[in-house]
């Protein structure tokens, strides 16, 4: 069966890493068809807007998008196109795996294999009710957490754990201080956890979680938390395993899902063939899992690991002398 996906080549290093990623996907005979759509600076230049209706329509129709990083120019209406996409498609679950890989500049070359499931649509991160008093002395922000939002993200985390054979979910919160918002999240999470007796569950306060992640990351399996805490924790986790070049992310909603690299457009190396395509490739592996092709996803991950182990054509961020496409070709040759 053919599956059409929306492909957004993006800005900066975006087109380079997307071409490399599609080269690898093409070598796998997945039956995927690509519908290219623009967003970000590329869309502004071609079509006069950052998020054209045709792109929205394409994602709505195909329900799956693979997206390179985007530039959101200052003063163009959105604070971030990525946040806007999450809002418009209600992509409530942000799923970020962090796994140790060989031959990376990581403090944990082995032992880390965790997934952060971050609530993506509410809480302090979305900047609701931001205001500055007329004298510029007092700034405020509304932090709104709902039972529905908490329930669906925690349920997503437990369902994910069950589906992919994970053993434990850690609920990360700050309910001791933020008694209303984090308190509601924790109370709701406990109720959901009780429905999954087959999955071990523990609770951890966010500041302690950060310390524990740095000292003993191997104790974590799946972490579920609210938006802002998840934003910070997932970058911390990316740092544990060697940085942004290896960190993918999925934004999942009921009607659509967008798969991406966590990093940005890297303007400092754009157009030079230096960008590491692995983060987007690992995002593509998450997409294959989501599309019901877990064995293909596993194959793709294994080819990436084998290429890292062989130090074959690695990009400069990994200490190699290869380039974006030679790295991708080395991965494709191992599939
Ligand atoms: P960045 O992630 O683009 O770059 C940070 C550093 O990491 C740079 O030194 C860069 O060269 C390096 N880097 C990033 N990805 C790499 C890769 N694949 N291979 C090798 N090195 C890589 O972060 P930034 O510089 O803060 O942001 C640049 C732009 O990206 C901004 O306009 C920002 O808004 C945008 N951005 C977009 C997204 C997205 O669309 N998902 C996410 C973050 C930032």
From TrEMBL:
SUPFAM superfamilies: Isocitrate/Isopropylmalate dehydrogenase-like (SSF53659). It is an enzyme of class 1 (oxidoreductase). InterPro entries: IsoCit/isopropylmalate_DH_CS (IPR019818), IsoPropMal-DH-like_dom (IPR024084). One of its GO terms (molecular function) is isocitrate dehydrogenase (NAD+) activity. Residues 4-331 form the Isopropylmalate dehydrogenase-like domain. The keyword Oxidoreductase applies. This is Isocitrate dehydrogenase (NAD+). The keyword Oxidoreductase applies. Belongs to the isocitrate and isopropylmalate dehydrogenases family. Pfam families: Iso_dh. It comes from the Bacteria. Keywords: Oxidoreductase. Gene3D superfamilies: Isopropylmalate Dehydrogenase. Its EC number is 1.1.1.41. The lineage of its organism: Bacteria, Pseudomonadati, Pseudomonadota, Gammaproteobacteria, Lysobacterales.
């Amino acid at each position: 069966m053919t599956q059409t996906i929306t492909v957004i080549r993006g800005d900066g290093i975006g087109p380079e890493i997307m071409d490399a990623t599609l080269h690898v996907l093409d070598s796998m005979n997945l039956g995927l068809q690509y519908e290219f759509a623009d967003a970000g600076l590329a869309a502004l230049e071609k079509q006069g807007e950052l998020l054209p209706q045709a792109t929205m329509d394409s994602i709505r129709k195909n329900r799956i998008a693979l997206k390179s990083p985007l530039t959101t120019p200052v003063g163009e209406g959105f604070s971030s196109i990525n946040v806007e996409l999450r809002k418009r498609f209600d992509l409530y679950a942000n799923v970020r795996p962090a796994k140790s890989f060989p031959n990376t500049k990581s403090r944990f070359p082995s032992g880390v294999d965790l997934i952060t499931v971050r609530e993506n649509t509410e809480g302090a991160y979305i900047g609701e009710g931001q205001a500055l008093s007329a004298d510029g002395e007092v700034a405020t922000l509304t932090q709104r957490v709902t039972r529905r939002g908490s329930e669906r993200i925690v349920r997503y985390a437990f369902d994910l754990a069950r589906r992919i054979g994970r053993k434990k979910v850690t609920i990360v919160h700050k309910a001791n201080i933020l008694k209303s918002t984090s308190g509601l999240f924790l109370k709701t999470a406990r109720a959901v956890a009780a429905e999954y007796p087959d999955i071990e569950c523990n609770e951890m306060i966010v500041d302690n979680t950060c310390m524990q992640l740095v000292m003993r990351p191997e104790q974590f399996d799946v972490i579920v938390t609210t938006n802002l805490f998840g934003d910070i924790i997932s970058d911390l986790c990316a740092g544990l395993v060697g940085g942004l070049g290896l960190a993918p992310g999925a934004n999942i909603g009921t009607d659509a899902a967008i798969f991406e690299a966590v990093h940005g457009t890297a303007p400092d190396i754009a157009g030079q063939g230096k960008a590491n395509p692995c983060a987007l490739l690992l995002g593509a592996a998450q997409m294959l899992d989501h599309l019901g092709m877990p064995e293909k996803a596993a194959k793709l991950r294994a080819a990436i690991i084998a290429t890292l182990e062989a130090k074959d054509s690695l990009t400069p961020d990994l200490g190699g002398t290869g380039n974006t496409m030679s790295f991708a070709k080395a991965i494709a040759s191992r599939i």
